Here is the input.
Amino acid sequence: MPLIRSSAAELANLMATGEASSVEITRASLDRIAEVDGEVHAFLHVDAEGALAQAAEVDRRRAAGEELHALAGVPIAVKDVVVTRGLPTTAGSRILEGWVPPYDATLVTRLREAGLPILGKTNMDEFAMGSSTEHSAYGPTRNPWDLGRIPGGSGGGSAACLAAYEAPLAIGTDTGGSIRQPASVTGTVGAKPTYGGVSRYGLIAMASSLDQAGPCTRTVLDAALLHSLIGGHDRMDSTSLDAPVPPVVEAANRADVSGMRIGIVKELTGEGFQPGVQKRFEEAVQHLVDAGAEIVQVSCPSFRYALAAYYLVMPSEVSSNLAKFDAMRYGLRVLPEGIDDPSAEQVMAATRDAGFGDEVKRRIILGTYALSSGYYDAYYGSAQKVRTLIADDFARAFEVADVLVSPTSPTTAFPFGDKMSDPLSMYMQDIATIPANLAGVPGLSLPSGLADEDGLPAGFQILAPAMKDERMYAVGSALEKRLHAAWGGPLLARVPSLVKEA
Here is the structure.
């Protein structure tokens, strides 16, 4: 098997047994990036020199007999919303074009200390606002399954680089589904840990009470291994949970669901979901039944208001967080035309007009309005009350079910431009993923198969109670094994044209 098609766990084993070196593995990924990324556009910046230097250092340490992390030497890609010392970090926006941070995010520090070569930074919707990666200021990323379709968003670059075999591991962030929805439409695996389970220090904030970094991979075990590495308490993040990382790797290896209660959420299935997506979901549920799980039906009535609540809470926090991009301290600065001695306000207005895209402006305006005097209680305050109701629905559901399941996204990948003129239809792509962010519970998406209508991947979502992340890995791993047995191998083995030649 070519190195680029191996999982991270398989690559780690090859290095441990001396069958491959980190330099060989990293160079294979870099060669693949050079070969196909001109078409996929998963990366905004590739650091070949730095990645190979990190790989060589890991090989030296391994040869010296040092004890290394299980993933040491496995290359990784990092979403461009995560700051990286010495590497450009733009959040997919012109307003940060060329900015090179002087420090690393905590999760990047942990990657470097563990010896994972960083291949580069992946493309994304500007400031993580979008579900298609069409809102990147640097052009869209393309789905390796069909280059005319979106790879999901906002983390389309991280998901696409996995599906195109450019990297075995990637980091994403998930505010309303930006890890899980791209995983769904690219046939990969993505996990959103419990809120606070992975440090947010060094993430360029979109909505601070919703943002969560997590692993993007091609297998459930790889996601668990990466989650275990980047998770854990961080004193630099006031929202970081002061608790051990749940035993996610053990759960992914055990993969036993016999006797578990699997809750199907009434509000997240059926009407509004593409028939082929729904069919693959039902087949996956049957696999869990065959593995010994018990199926229970649950209703979470407040979930129907999740999308509306999210699009008040999130833009309100966006309005606050993006106020720092003022053309005064760092980033882009544009002087207004026809004004000889512009005021700070005029420079700020010109810069934000030129530096922010339409979707970012839309959300800033919406959030500023929702927070304005006379409207705060009616909009933002009411949305926070709905958020509490959603958390209560989750709590009641988890009294009768160990995990909850649904399709990850209501449709497969749609063609470029299909939803750009209708923001609401774009927002609907996250209808099944948003409730987890509002409540802070963990969620995982893995491939459930190819939809009959278009032969494109569909995703299966597993939600667990807060700080019980191991449950979603156990269910995901058990389901993955049964699906692979039914398919005769990983779903990505069927990816056409561009990737089939890998």
Notes: The chain has 17 helices and eleven strands. The longest strand covers residues 443-450. The chain has a mean pLDDT of 95. Residues 263 and 296 are 5 Å apart (CA to CA).
